[in-house]
Amino acid sequence: MERAVLGYDLDLAFGATKGGDEADIAIGREIVEVVGTRGFSPTWNGTADHRISFPINWQRRSGPIADTSPPDKHLQNA
């Protein structure tokens, strides 16, 4: 997330718990297909050893409705 906030693409790691590269690639294909139908333009080379990359324009909310409360302590150490 930090890289996305700085203007870089958001990179998504993925993988199956069983089934090796074939299962990983099937998951990657499904992710690319689903997010593509939701308006994103992911890039991925189709292999199990590369992350799926999403170009995003990070826009921090500001103003009266923005949640500026400190993050939950549990999330800080995640």
Structural description of this entry:
With 78 residues, the chain is mostly helical. It has one domain (2-59). It has helices spanning 2-5, 20-36, 73-76; strands at residues 10-12, 52-54. A two-stranded antiparallel ribbon has the order 1-2. It starts with a helix and ends with a helix.
Q: Low-confidence runs (pLDDT<50, min 5 residues)?
A: none
Structural class: mainly alpha
Shape type: elongated
Distance between the termini: 13 Å
Brief rundown of the structure:
It contains three helices and two strands. By secondary structure, the protein is mainly α. The chain has a two-stranded antiparallel ribbon with strand order 1-2.
Main attributes of the structure:
single chain, 78 residues, mainly alpha, two-stranded antiparallel ribbon
Task: Explain the layout of strands and helices.
Blueprint: H1 2-5, E1 10-12, H2 20-36, E2 52-54, H3 73-76
Antiparallel strand pairs: 1-2
